[in-house]
Amino acid sequence: MHTFLQHNPTKLYFGKGQIEYITKEIAKESRVLLVYGGGSIKRNGVYKEAIKQLNAIHATVFELAGVEPNPRLATVEKGVEICKEEGINYLLAVGGGSVIDCTKGISAAANYEGEAWDLFTQKAPIESALPFGTVLTLAATGSEMNPVSVITNWESKDKIGWSSSHVYPTFSILDPSYTLSVPQDQTVYGIVDSMSHALEHYFHRTPNTPMIDGFIESLLRTAMETGPNLVENPQSFEHRETMMYVSTTAFNGTLSNGTDGGDWATHRIEHALSAVYDIPHGGGLAVLFPNWLDHVLEEDPSRVKQLAVNVLGVSPEGKEEIEVAREGAKALRAFWNSIGAPNRLSDYSIDERHFKAIVEKTFIKPGVGTYKEMDHSSVLDILKRSL
Amino acid sequence: MHTFLQHNPTKLYFGKGQIEYITKEIAKESRVLLVYGGGSIKRNGVYKEAIKQLNAIHATVFELAGVEPNPRLATVEKGVEICKEEGINYLLAVGGGSVIDCTKGISAAANYEGEAWDLFTQKAPIESALPFGTVLTLAATGSEMNPVSVITNWESKDKIGWSSSHVYPTFSILDPSYTLSVPQDQTVYGIVDSMSHALEHYFHRTPNTPMIDGFIESLLRTAMETGPNLVENPQSFEHRETMMYVSTTAFNGTLSNGTDGGDWATHRIEHALSAVYDIPHGGGLAVLFPNWLDHVLEEDPSRVKQLAVNVLGVSPEGKEEIEVAREGAKALRAFWNSIGAPNRLSDYSIDERHFKAIVEKTFIKPGVGTYKEMDHSSVLDILKRSL
Hints:
Two copies of one chain form a homodimer.
Chain A: E1 4-6, E2 11-14, H1 22-25, E3 31-35, H2 40-43, H3 46-56, E4 60-64, H4 73-86, E5 90-95, H5 97-109, H6 116-120, E6 132-136, E7 148-153, E8 158-163, E9 171-174, H7 184-202, H8 210-232, H9 237-249, H10 265-277, H11 281-297, H12 302-310, H13 321-338, H14 355-362, H15 376-385
Parallel strand pairs in A: 2-9, 3-4, 3-5, 5-6, 6-9
Antiparallel strand pairs in A: 7-8
Helix pairs in contact in A: 4-5, 7-8, 7-9, 7-11, 8-9, 10-11, 10-14, 11-13, 11-15, 12-13, 14-15
Protein name (chains A, B): Iron-containing alcohol dehydrogenase
GO molecular function, one term (chains A, B): oxidoreductase activity
Domain Alcohol dehydrogenase iron-type/glycerol dehydrogenase GldA (chains A, B): 9-176
């Protein structure tokens, strides 16, 4: 194991009716910026619920609506402007990972005088941030309990992941009933995204981490059991509940305690891909991840084999290690396809045309991959396998 | 799942050399009460290390040495007296669970004007506590990252578990190398205690908790793989490391998120038993737990069967559910015996003589058992099975 600090400051309120804790967490008469997306929270009643709680503490509420699925720098800047003009002292994100990521961006940049983009590209350090809470309406990214955010600069077509210990949510409300109306495609992408986070954690190279490896395997098995049931019964509170807790746990630090953190190359490639094509993040991951497995197992099949046997139901009997690993990659692709995730880049009408740009954007920050360090040709290989 | 709040305020610094973080966590020139046990920390160098860090922040250090294996009220009171007389503002526990539990008692009672025992028996509410950190030297109780403590009133022979959100350690240093010199019997009791905590969590009655159930099973399998290796190679840093992280995780809240918290009847019975006989807690648990399993499976074998199959390596093929469950209880007893834990009460020369008193002390607080609610006759049955 590596040395590590285990400490997550976010208070997670999980379960039906927990939204009431907003009134305990946000100080009376705060000046709150409410951040949300395309308006689904108005249709499903969550907006009204949140406003009710904010009224109860006599908050002065400002709004930033219309945060995009891949949240954009321009929207962050709009939020920062409101914060500065209106003296906002608390942010409340109501939505999925994109809304929360955008709120993290605003919270960091509101305390900074320069360009927000400089903070996300590490040109300037993040030294403080406005406090914020979240009300989650989509089980997917885990942003509700971690210090990570992804922001897209639409002008330069750069999508960048960044993190800072200052942007942990102070609290997050996870009420599974708020996810009952999530559309089928978003539900599927959420399952893929959560599983990808667990998979990226799994591909570390730290010796002697049996318990955490077992936790990751257990989380993945739970997602594979629950995923198909949820897709068949999207109105099931129990399945929504399971996936909501799975997705938060997949990326809140639990799965990286003592490891090198895992290999996030697939996320890096997907960010580059969806910066160029604006496709859903979960869809991009579903296409890329099995091909990343196929790429790395050629060099070292051991870990993919372990995944195949312990999680993906592949029998190792009488087979070479590499054969078992290959069947594992195939089984993961088949599983995701079975719940409705895309199979190939051509499902999005994507061809080789912009591969060079995608490869370059993958390396927008140096160091891609740790289980297997990637160079330009390995990223290109994965993209080609994904055609 | 039940609704729950997931938030553990303790900062866990895990790994070699982490003791240096004392200087970041305790304010300069603090007045510190250093709490420790029988002096093993002087032999293995941990005392010297801790003092070095405290000197670096120019702390004024007072000492409370000699905390007993089952820490006593009288020792807590001695600590409280020092705190009040010397204006202590920070406590540092260096030792195992007993030292930490004693420190929790001191930290709660130092801010209280009445009798300390009233706080532990819930006659008076705990409204604040002195902050404290811990340096762990024994992997067992999990006290280093939870709000729970057990104190024995030696005059009345009552041993009571209590908890308060005010007595989470502010930080805990977990350096596995500090456990390399733990004697064999303590090592074994630590394995039993950690596994018991996980087992007690496992016996909840909350539906739809597949991921957490899987986490518990994974933790138990890790303990069963590592335990025998550690007992054979007590100088192995890697095995110490694994068991140290297992024991903290077994009782830091991770395993009860969303469940009813599990069934702690065995711990309650053991506390009564070791209040009367002053035997090692882990030894008492090793005797009692398989008999608790045998007792409850007669009524409902389903969960014991699941444990038997998923953790204890029992094959269910062609067997009745109750048969598989019985083999599970037997397998747990056999495993603990194989690493050197006691088998029966007679190993401690304990007979029926004081059973009545033990049963009564088990009910010192009302409500024993949730998976199966116990009455006096069921506790007596478990004790008789343990003879």
